[in-house]
Specification:
Helix content: 10-25%
Number of strands: 13
CATH topology: Rossmann fold
Mean pLDDT: 93
Distance between the termini: 12 Å
Strand order of the largest sheet: 4-1-5-6-13-12-11-8-9
Order of helices and strands: EEEHEHEHEHEEHEEEEEH
Number of helices: 6
Largest sheet: 9 strands, mixed
Strand content: 15-25%
Number of domains: 1
Shape: globular
CATH class: Alpha Beta
CATH superfamily: Class I glutamine amidotransferase (GATase) domain
Low-confidence stretches: none
Radius of gyration: 17 Å
Length: 242
């Protein structure tokens, strides 16, 4: 049983709604997971109930808005996009709860960044404004979210390399923030070939795995499917007391 968060997304009339791109759920279900959606807890303090955590075998932190820089000790700078403190609170709490229980964690795009922040790292608030790269990492999704944008180089000896079965793969790219200071307990598993921007992180034991791209949109490719199968395999190995 894998949990994934659903974010705030009001409709055009302003009615509050919760939403999650269906591709995440489809990718997890195709890999053999049962999926639980976790909403923000407004107006209550953020929490993941112990009774629910006792049932979970893994966690996915998906894409979404920018992480509020206050979460890593900075003030907003030019280039920062929309933030959502409710989803920040939920996802940071969820990562800590999963770490406490040694549950496998898979972070995707924003989720890659959230895991790093939760564990003590920081972010570039905007790659262009921070002068990191001239490579465009936020590409137009109109031609399709499965459009490949650039290549990443996968580090040898990592869990990511084991799962992908390749030293380099082409990925899609829809982000303007990126990992800056790497959190203690994490190591780099992949970088953008063109500019060195961090595209993957993992823990030494491989139970935490994060990627900056969106593999849920690329499940026509074997390496993308392998990421979700790897999470389900890790979750299946968790000894649970029901």
């Amino acid at each position: 049983m894998i949990a994934i968060t659903a974010g705030n997304r009001p409709d055009r009339s302003g009615i509050p709604r919760l939403a999650l791109n269906r591709a995440y759920v489809s990718a997890l279900q195709s890999a053999g997971a049962d999926v639980v959606l976790l909403p923000p807890a407004s107006p209550r303090p953020p929490q993941v109930l112990p009774a629910l955590l006792d049932r979970l075998d893994g966690v996915v932190v998906p894409g979404g808005p920018d992480v509020n820089p206050s979460r890593y000790g900075e003030s907003p700078r030019k280039g920062l996009g929309e933030v959502d403190d409710e989803i920040d609170s939920l996802e940071l709490a969820l990562v800590h709860a999963a770490l406490d229980r040694d549950l496998p964690i898979f972070g995707i795009c924003r989720g890659h960044q959230v895991v790093n922040v939760a564990m003590g790292g920081s972010l570039y608030q905007d790659l262009a404004q921070d002068g990191v790269t001239s490579v465009r990492h936020r590409t137009d999704p109109a031609p399709g979210r499965d459009r490949l944008a650039h290549t990443i180089e996968v580090q040898p000896g990592t869990r990511l390399r084991e799962l992908l079965g390749a030293d380099r793969v082409e990925v899609n790219s829809f982000h303007h923030q990126a990992v800056r200071r790497i959190a203690p307990g994490l190591l780099i598993s992949a970088v953008c070939t063109a500019d060195g921007v961090i595209e993957g992180l993992e823990s030494k034991d491989g139970r935490i795995c994060t990627v900056q791209c969106h593999p849920e949109e690329l499940t026509g490719l074997a390496w993308a499917r392998a990421l979700f199968r790897g999470l389900v395999a890790a979750a299946s190995g968790v000894a649970r007391v029901r």
